[in-house]
Design brief:
Shape: rod-shaped
Number of helices: 3
Strand order of the largest sheet: 1-2-3
Radius of gyration: 33 Å
Order of helices and strands: HHHEEE
Helix content: 40-55%
Structural class: alpha+beta
Number of strands: 3
Length: 103
């Protein structure tokens, strides 16, 4: 009887150890640092996507964004008339311009 009891306890202990190993593996998979790393990677990807379509990235490549003082973007010569004041956004600041002839 003592041998059976000892064997039963040994099996029970082994089952509990296996359960603890499974639980520990599950906890490692849901550890906050793993979630943070995944979220950080996703955010870096979103930041790269936003940077690629940013008007400021266009300016950094040497282009200029022309705007009226109220913020409207000049997309065509038809958007400006002689005498209009415009802001030209360049890499390191803004130039104040006045339209002489829209072409």
């Amino acid at each position: 009887a003592l041998r059976r009891l000892h064997g039963a306890w040994a099996r029970r202990i082994e089952r509990e150890r296996a359960r603890l190993r499974r639980e520990a593996a599950g906890l490692r998979g849901t550890h906050p640092s793993r979630r943070l790393a995944t979220d950080a990677q996703r955010l870096r990807g979103l930041a790269r996507s936003l940077s690629a379509i940013s008007p400021l990235a266009t300016v950094a490549r040497g282009y200029t964004i022309l705007q009226h003082p109220d913020g409207r973007v000049v997309r065509s010569v038809a958007d400006a008339a002689p005498g209009d004041a415009l802001d030209a956004r360049v890499t390191d600041g803004t130039l104040k311009l006045r339209v002489l002839d829209p072409g």
